[in-house]
Amino acid sequence: MRILAVGAEGGGSGGLLHSIRQWMADSGAEIESAPDLPRAVRQLGAGRWQVVVAVLGDHADDDLVWWVDTLRGASAAPRLIAVAHRPSMGLVLRAEKLGVLDVLSLPVRRDDFLRALRRVRTAPEAAVTLPDVESHAIGQYVLVGQSPAMLEVYKLIARVGPSSATVLVQGESGTGKEVIARAIHLNGPMASGPFVAVNCAAIPENLLESELFGHEKGAFTGAITRKIGRFEQAGGGTLFLDEIADMSLALQAKILRAVQEREIERVGGSETIPVNVRLIAATNRDLKEAIKQARFREDLYYRLAVFQIRLPRLTERGDDLFLLTAYYARHFAKEYGKRIHSISDRALDLLRNHAWVGNVRELRNVIERAVIVATDEVLRVDHLPEEFRGEEATLQDRPEGALLALAEIEARHIARVLAHTNGQIGAAAEVLGIHRNTLTRKMKEYGL
Amino acid sequence: MSGEQPLPPVRVEKALGLLPEIEALAPLRALLVSISRPDERTLWSSSGPYLTLGKRGVQPEELRRRMPQAFHVITDHLQVLYRAYVETLECHQRGDGPGAVAALLRAGRGEERVGRVGQARAWYDVALRVSQALQDRRPEVESLRSLGELFLRLGQHAEGARHFQRALAIAEAEFDQAGAIAACEGLGAAALAQSQWAGAQAWYARGLQLAEATGDQRQIGRLEHHLGVLARQQGELARAGEHLRRARECFESTDATEEIAGVLNMQGLLEGQLGNEAAAMAAYREALAWAQRAPRDAGLEVAIRLNLAELHLEAGRFLDGEEEMRRAEQVAIAANLTSRLVQIYMLMGKLRGRQLDETGFVFFEQAVELSRTLEPSPAAEAQVYLEYGLFRERLGQREEARACLERAREIFGTVGDSVDRRRVEAELEKMAV
What we know:
The complex is a heterodimer of chains A (448) and B (433). Chain A is an alpha/beta fold and 448 residues long. Chain A is built from 19 helices and 19 strands.
């Protein structure tokens, strides 16, 4: 094992480097040191290291983020042991989230250090062969999956496809709403026409109208040429309005008119233009809730929801995860000119235990990244993002039934809720059912 | 405690639309931008990859809570100005002219730090007027230098050069070595900005000669760095590498962390140009590490991250490139670096262009908006239109491409940037074929 100890030489670290050398004397480990982060970067670039022991400075939180960022680009993906003076609970939780191997308090105790090192597993990971996956290709998009939940979706596509009914596709982010919309288009009467997709949430609000309906030259500042809108572009085909809930009420009214009357007017124009498009809308929001909050027009909802398809979360799709992993691994291996035929059992376990907030899109990203960093034909834990490695460390250290201090449970829960509310204390206090002052006090107490 | 769902945050594009363009509100505008956050729900949604500042959210309640922060910035700033003025008066009263000029210049720098360049100029003008009546001419050199730097910052290179020229003449007459070196540095920068390579070379070399005579390692390092930048621009890569190596040695001997980071950033660009991808990557990584040790300079960090992102993009590693750009965006937003945000969004748009992704136009639209409103900069706006035009062209939208390029040509013409204007004209000619 090669260990790089950084900032561990001075008296401020309590002679940590000396201690590490003593503790590891019989282990055969190779230990080198660097005075600070910049010099350590040079050493990291010059060789492969398994572990970096970094003594964090006065701004431990900032230092930790810099270290994680630095190691992300280092070869051999070394694991980080962060050492700090009196680390706060916040620092520990952040470190865990960032996939840091461990956070130790100064002065470092031998047992703590050796226990942290034991977490760097060196045992071989068993390879699980990735199957050849049959996919339903829709241009550059694919449908992969055989779970009962997805079979239901396929049946719905088969039912609605041949009609020209308007369809509302609902599902969490990354579940594949656009792929389904394309499948419906290709199985429908307008398959020979264009499929035009508009992401309503991506386009600045002041430009969305002209994007959809087009504009005449000089209609507004920036209208430097005449523009044909997406409704017209999609003529004889399908217009896919993604993230429809993000549209202003004023624009919703115009969409409603276009859907009802099948005609539009360009911004700044006076001519009425007939449009012949099949409309498919999609959203990751609860439209009924949006209607209650007066953020979405009820009449438009009923116009769009003629036929509804709800897509399952990735976690509801059982072993589709394995099939999707196999599909993306082979897909990206081809793209990056690599040969990948297996995934390690531990890596697969981590994928199976992950929460997948971003569903298939997140899985696709994770696999693409893993394929890029893979050095042989097997995808391993080390190829997964840091947070997965953090999850592994947590699982490993906390066997079922392990007891946690009440304060730790509370701190973890508060941290999770804060992450969920985007750090908004008021909203977090509401979720937790406590007064915001109490929450602020607890955050201070736990160093969150 | 109500069981109602908290209201969703207000989009920044909406929030800024409700904020009048009044200078007194600039700190509030800055606070609003810096506390904005992406909506967690959009991070993995299909609009996630297109997220820009305008689509981030802000909670009015949080803005209210953090308003004291803005008041603090305002009072701090005003205190700097008021104290500087009182100090000017006190110096005047006791006949300390140089002290008065120093206080006035300090106030000007305070204005520059918060982006109030017009106000900074007013302070510098008073400082110059006061300094011209003094027997000691070093304060005049200092005032001229401050004005010269300000003009360069405004893109008025000829005017900047004129001020540095005067500063140099006086400094040499007064044997003010430090003033003369700084003036040479300024003249070199003005020439470089106008693509006058020979002139820049001569001024930097002269500055270096003077600096070597003083033995000031930091100053020598700065001039070696400039010469390295210049050599790289001229395509003399080996010479550039030599200058940068010497610059780094000088900075390392004085532990000038920020300058080391800057040199390594340039080294990264050079290595990239030489096709040494691994060396470029190592240089950027080390630059970031030095930047972390230096007093926080968000602008430098963003610059390094953008170069790193470009390196990833050139190598076809789009995921890594995008990730680095998002990190840069985060830093730029937190530090309210609008001009850097414009660069970031331009680069994101370029990335989408390479992927033939039409929705990438949202990044250019955001960049245009930022260069017009938050920190108006015609030169930046022209650059955005140039890249926007190239993006449209790549997607085969020739009419839109031409319109964007013509707009860029028009703005470059207005700001007197002939180099970029010629570049745009070349692109337009290519399109006409």
